[in-house]
Structure formats: C-alpha cells, structure tokens
C-alpha cells in the first residue's frame, strides 16, 4: 500500500491511474544492484553514494528519514563537512529522476512513497509469508514460492553500495537469502528430491563450511540417495572442522542425525511427503478378473487348489502350468488363484512376465513393482537384483501371499520372484516345462476334451443357437483343435454376427483347412487357431498380415509398415486399422502396431505358405531395411554435415523420412532404436549384411549416447557374424568397426582393441575407406585411454592420412582433435591447442554450427586450453560443448564434459565447483560409460571434496574408485592409492 501522509500529495489511486495511462510505472530493486525503472526504461540513479541514499529511503518502507539519519547511513561517525549539502544535492537529483510524487520532503527529512508491489524486497517478503502459510498443507507449492522468491535476487543485495547502513543491511539480506535457501532445500528433501539436492548442498557446504544446518541437510540427502558412507563422512568432516576452527563439538541435532544414519533409520530414509507405512502391511489384490464363462478343467482345478490350500503352515508351494500357447494356462491359473484367495489373506501379486515375446520382463523390474505393491517406498528399493530379491523375501516373511507369475520365459527368470517362506505360494504359467526348478509341482495342460470344448463354445454363443445345430458345433470345436483360445475366437466372432448360423461357421472352418489334424502339437496347433480369422481376410488384408509379421522388433511404426507393404501412408493406415478390428493386430499407440507373439508366428507361417512368388518376402524386408537406412542416414547427415561416410553406403531403392528439425530427427532415432537394431540383425541374417552394416553406422549415435551401447554391441556382433558367414569382408569390417565403438563406449577397451584389429584387416582386404579411416581413429582413442601414447599417435596419424585420402573433412577433424589429446597427454600443450583448433575450424565450416561433431571438437579444445592454463577460454568452450551434447541426447558425452569441467575447477583451485560438477557427472553417467569412467569421476569428486575439507567423504569416493581400478587392472589405481595414503607427519629433529 502507498503511505500518503504528506500535505498536497495525490492519492495513490490517482497516481497509479496516471502512471498506468502513461505506461511509466516505477519499480525498484535492492536484491542486487540498486536500480530504478520507469516502464522498461532503466533510469540513471547516479553515483554509488547517491544510490546508497536511494536504498536507505527504499528500505524504510515509506517512513521519513531525517537528514541526520541519512548522513549516518552514508558516512557513519566520520561525515564530511559538507555532508548535509551533499544529501540535499542527492535528494534533488533523485527527485528530478523519480518525480516529486515519489521522493517527498517533509519534517526536515525525505521519504520515498511507492506502492508495495514496486519494490523487489517487499515482493520477496510477501512470497516468503505465503510460502510459510502454505508449507504445512502443500509443500510443493511452498517450494515453488521460495524458488520464485530466490529468483528475485540478482547477485549480492545492495551491490557495491558504500556506507555502514548499506553494509549492515547487505549482511542481513544475505543471511536471509541463505536461510531461505536452507528452507527450500529442506522442502526439496521433504518432497523426495534428495538426489538432485546433493550437488547444490555440496557446493553450499564448501562456501559456508561452519554452517551446521547445511551439513545436516547434506547428510540427509546423501543418506536418502543410498550413500550412507558419504553421509557419515560428512559428519566426521564437520566434527573435525568445528574442533579445529572453533574448539567445539557439533550441535546435538547433528550428532543425533549421525546415530540415526548409523542405525539405518527407516523413518529418516523416507521423505516427509512419502506416507509412512501403515501399521498393518499393505494387502495387494492384483489378480486379473476371472472369465465368467470358465469351463471344464475340473481335475486340474482340484489338483492345484489342493496344493495351494496345503501351503498354509508348510514350506512354500510352487506349481507350474506348462503347455502350448492358447491352451488356457492363464485362464486356469487366474481361476484357481481366485478360488484360493481365502488361504492367502495377506494378498495376491500378479505379473505378466512376457516370456513368449522378444523382450521378457526383467526380474529386477518385476521385483520393484512387487515391492511397491507391498508398501515399500521407492527410496527404499535397492538397485541390484540380489538386493531387491532379498528385500522382497524379507517383506513377505510372516505373511501369507499368493504370487501368480504368468507367461514365464524360463526358471532363471522366476527364481528371484519366488517368496521362499512358509505360508506363501507361487503359481507359474509358461510355454516350457520348469523341470529345472527345485521342488516344483509340474502340471502339463493339454487341449480340452470334446465335451468341455463344446460347453465353452455354447457358453459364448448361446445355448439356443448351439442346441439346434449340435453337430455343426462339434465340427467347429474339432476344427479348432479343441484349443481354448481358438474356440473363444471362433465363438466370439459368431456371437458378433447374428446373421450367421453355426453351420456357416463350420463350413468356413472346414473349407481348405485339412491341415488341422497335423497341426495339433506344439506351436502348429496355435497357428491353426488363427486360421479362422485369417481365412476371413480380403486379399489386401491377408497380404499385409503376412508381410508385417516378417519384421523383427517389438512393434512397427506406420511409416515403416508402409515401406514393408510398398503402400502410401493413408492406404497402409486404413488397411492396418481393419486388421486391428479383426484382433489379428494390436494398436500399441497411435501410429504404432504390434502382434501378439503367437499371432506373429502364425503370420510368418502364412507368409511362408501363401506369399507368392516367395521373393515377395525378401522384397518386403529389403524395403524395410531401405526405409530405415535412408531415414537413419538423413539423421546422420543432420548431426554430421559433410561426413563422407554416407557416400560409401550401399544404395537404397526405397525412400525414408526426411526431417527439417534436428530435434524431430533425434526423436525418431531414439524412439525407433529397438526396431532399428532388430532390423539390422535380421537383415544381416537374411542375406543383406552390407546394408545392415551401413544401418549400424548410420545410427551410431545410439551406441555413442551410452544408453543403448549394450543393445548396439549385441546387434553389431550379430551383423559381423552374418557378414562373415556370407563372405562379405566390407560388411564384416564395418560391423566390427561399430562393435569396436560400442565396446569402447562401454569401457571394455581390451575387447574393443581385439575387434579393431580384425576390422582393420577386413577394411584393408576390402579396400574400404570407411573402415580404413574409422578403425585407426578408434584404435587411437583406445590407446590414449590405456596410456599407450606412442601407439595412439601412430594410429591417429594413420587415420588422418586415410580421412584425407577419402576427402572426409569431418573425419580429418576428428583425428586432429584426438591427436590433440595425445599431444596434451605427452606434455606438448602448444601443439595440442593448435591441433584442436584445426579440428574445430573444420567443423565450424559446416553451416549448421550445432553439429554434434563440433561439440567433440570443442571438447578436445577445452582440454587442450586447460592444459595450457587458459582456463577461462577452456571453461567457455567446454560449456558450449556440453550444451550441444545435451541437446543431441549424448548422455555419455554430456556427463564426460561435466567431468572435464570438474577437473578444470580443480586446476584453478575451485574445489567446491569441482565437486558440484563431478556430482552431476556421476548422476548422468550412472549405468553408462563403464566402470573405468565412473572410477575417474569418483577420483575427481574425492579431490573436490577434500579441497573443501570433507576428507572423510573424499576417502569413501577414493576407496570405491580404487576398488574399480583394481578390478580392471587399471594403472590409475596407483595414483588413487597415493591419495589414500596419509601424508607423513613432520617431526622435530
């Protein structure tokens, strides 16, 4: 509110209206440099002393300051002789700038009268009050308000202002800012953002080493992030520091926190917003609904029910149902599980393990879901399979839980999922018999008897329709091979077509399907189940059904499907949607389609049987490969403009997608990764190894990102094996080049070198300019990582010559930048900078300016500049590189650039910044890049922590790094041992 007590002042409403009309409203900031604006115009506020006067008036909340008070504020106890005249001069100048209505003279003094919302400090105070008000009920909103509040600061409050008043207020405002930061960090921990808070808290504890509240928050954040040893090390560092600096012990709250961490306090591990476990254990009820028309299987129901009922008070009971797909394993298991629920009052767990598909569910993922269903907080769920399995068994101890593991792949998949305690039971379904599962009760499920099959058919279709055509109904279930899934599909189609008679359906099933008796064993019986739906398709639908089933991969996009079918997008979409209506195809998401695993097998059998001429199958897969290769090559060109590799690719006959926006291209590449890798593997084995190897090269970003390196390496190995079998030296060489790259990204340098040697031999045999350039380049990188600097230089000069001979300028730049790193490692810093600058100049010649390879060049240049001590320039180029890596989704390089920035900050003695960057690198590189890179980051993190006095925590990091280096046999272990060796204590002679 305005305070308008002066005579002749305009009322606030009039003034506000006038200012709004003129668009000249004033606003002021003190949380940073003292400034004044009129609208968007920054007003001149004069000398530092004049701004100090303005600040003194702004901070009085509209109250009048006497001339004497202002003199004390500006000069304290030693004012100049002309102090009063100076104050009046400053006030006069400010009044001309701000207006007479704003700076007023009264009672021998001055006052600034402004609306409350025009000063950033009062806005901050209002936000703080609102945050405090809502904190008890809505922590997320309180956190957002404090973040907004802290965003009002623009550096140090009252920056560069002289005078005792400004100094005192600056100190109090900075203390308030720090208190607000602590409050916001406290809220971060309360809402579960503990992992994100570690980096900021590490930096803050370095900047304010004696502030125990920050240390306390850091300990909690580390503990909740699963880093108990580091949390305890923070306490040890704090205790030592307080004793050395102040001669005191940590406050009781900090000591109590240490004890809670030592005792692995579960309450401490849970954020405030995460509900505490209920006094009674959570009772999951995950069983799917049983089918209302369940039929027959009486002997199996009785046998399994007796087994489950006997589980109470005895050792765990495990029953495994096995049989062909579609025989009704899941239906029977769910029905029996529902009947057995009274025997398991503590709940029932269920999961589809997707064992019949290409990507079976990972046991650790399933255990995570089970633990959450049993009431375990996310923060308490460990990372590794063994730890999750142990916690799962402990959680089930003393409880009576039934676990239904549906569609299992094999015994190895389900062993970690078995309860292992008395009173619990597991019911397993699988297409394979679990003969290697100790103590299991095996049940082999066969097809239905004719009587049961007819009963199921009747329940779905209706008694009236079947009673009048009993013989036709028997013919139908016989044609279905008495397989429950086939009967259900046939009966459901008939029930949906009221104009059909049972005889019509029987005639359709009998026509041209004399193979049913021969297809009653194994998967062939499953294929017979789908003859009903397939026989009703129009020729175009049937062709699409057959050809799409040929493609490997979990699903397929509309554009890729159109390539397989050689149709335009609209026609292909209309056709696929009709297949979705017949339930022979599923719509996984808009524009994406997939088969059930059994339907895919059946579709491929149909293609082998019906697709004429047979070459159509080969052409369909060839078009799919062309589509993927052409599209991936377009993405490659956007990321690596000018790269000559594309000129050496095999020609494609079918076009791919084109992208104008780099972000869209990367979206496509990363979202299609599974399909791309599956296509490369399948195509190589289908007689197309050369284009398959080119596809791997075109999607190298998937392997280089780190997130897909394992899958990429698996595909590259499969393509190289297929190319070797086909006798295609060029394709094998290129596939092994990509395998070398993937292994190097994963930190498996010895294996990478082995593959590189073979790839180079094949490249020379095929006279392939791609392998002849890329393989020596890769070998140079590997030798650099292994400290074989002479070998590295030889390899890179070989690569440089090969790239130049091929006219591959980006390749030449890559080799120059890698050579720069060798020169840097061998002390030739001047030439290292020169080589890196040559590489960057080549990259910058491309028009894009944001090409991924430019980031690689800047990365090398940043390292070289760091080595020459030009740290400001180094930090600038490394930050630019990091931005490009982040935008390109190159997680590995993003993390490694943060690591290099951490090393740079150590060089310029900024250990707090070093620790912060290393923390971020560690988080980004989690699970990618290999253990060798992780150990290097841990070593640097330890150096940063040691530099800010957190030596105990540093020791934890170094011990972990040493363990990794020792396991790998890496020479870096020696330098880490030196870090862990205490310096000798000097003694008097």
Residue share in helix: 55-70%
The gross shape turns out to be: globular
pLDDT < 50 runs, ≥5 residues: 1-23, 511-526, 985-989
Q: What's the story with the biggest beta sheet?
A: 5 strands, parallel
Count every helix, treating DSSP H or I runs of 4 or more residues as helices: 47
Strand content: 5-15%
Distance between the termini: 74 Å
Major sheet strand order: 8-9-10-7-11
Question: Structural class of the secondary structure composition?
Answer: mainly alpha
Mean pLDDT: 86
The rounded Rg comes to 36 Å
Number of strands: 14
Features:
989 residues; mainly alpha; five-stranded parallel sheet; three-stranded antiparallel sheet; 47 helices; 14 strands; 62% helix; 6% strand; globular; disordered N terminus; disordered C terminus
